[in-house]
Amino acid sequence: MVRSLLPLVALALLGCAPIAGEETRASGASDVGGALFVAGKFGNTLARIDLASGEETARVASCVNPHELATSPDERYVALACYGGRTVDIFRTSDLAKVKSIELGEGARPHGIVWHANGDLYATAEGRQSIYWIKDPLGAAETFEYASGQRGTHMLAVAPDGRHAWTTDLGSKTVTRIDLRTRRAPLSVEVGEEPEGIALSSDGATLYVSARGSNEAYAIDPQTLEVRKTIPTGRFALRIVTRPQGDYAVTSNLMDGSLTVIDLDTFEPVRTIPVSSPAEAEARTQVTVLWSPDGERIYAAETMSNTIAEIDFASGDVLRRLPGEGGGDGIAIVE
């Protein structure tokens, strides 16, 4: 991570014990089905967690420092962005066997990744100030690079029709629109301090961004990048993710261990869900968040405590803490 989290990274490299008095495994079975996939960025691993039992059922070595991951539209594969290197690696979800490693450019450091409904992969290349479009990733895997021209091109969203991508650029404090079809010059606009989280509404009409340095979230016009509305969030809003039903979003607030719930009709914060106490927040280091497909639960990766919190959206209760060994960060669900 960048400068503001260096003390936490140092702690992780020395090893992180579970927080006193807390379970690091799931307590009891659940009626939830499917599997949760976890990228362990410090352990260099990929793991599968059975959501019914709450137990880890498989773990394999991955690439160096994997961060974000994405599942294929048919849920048969999961792709890892290898932030410590220059590849996107693809594994089968059934047995975690690696089936492909796609080379990007020298020093690429891929981070954000999207496996689009069109079957193609898109990934940021932070080390090259660019993004990649990977056509037919399980076949010919043709790669096309697009420069953002911005420092710290970290996360991305892709339009439903695949014509545009948008990035958050930590170092440049910008959001960038990239035209994937015409290769017109990218458009970049400053948005807050250290914008990182990014999501696009299902109809492509609104872009949502969270800025961790500003403790704010923004509703943005995707084409002009004009900020339509700004609202406060919890402290250090790393991620913003929209509910599958399209009615709410949540931000993952690392420094106070909370989720800010945002009504997307009004783009107003409507409540705060405490996942861990402010005193625990630094020790847990809540990063990536993910909705369950039915929108009833939220999963939050607590990187330093090696846990994944499972939260009931309606009540805000933390139902279980699932295994997230090796510094779990990127997470994805298959049903």
From TrEMBL:
Matches recorded under InterPro entries: Haem_d1_sf (IPR011048), Host-pathogen_enzymatic-act (IPR051200), WD40/YVTN_repeat-like_dom_sf (IPR015943)
UniProt keyword annotations, A-Z: Signal
Signal peptide: 1-22
Parts forming coiled coils: none
Protein's name according to its UniProt entry: YncE family protein
Source organism per UniProt: Blastomonas marina
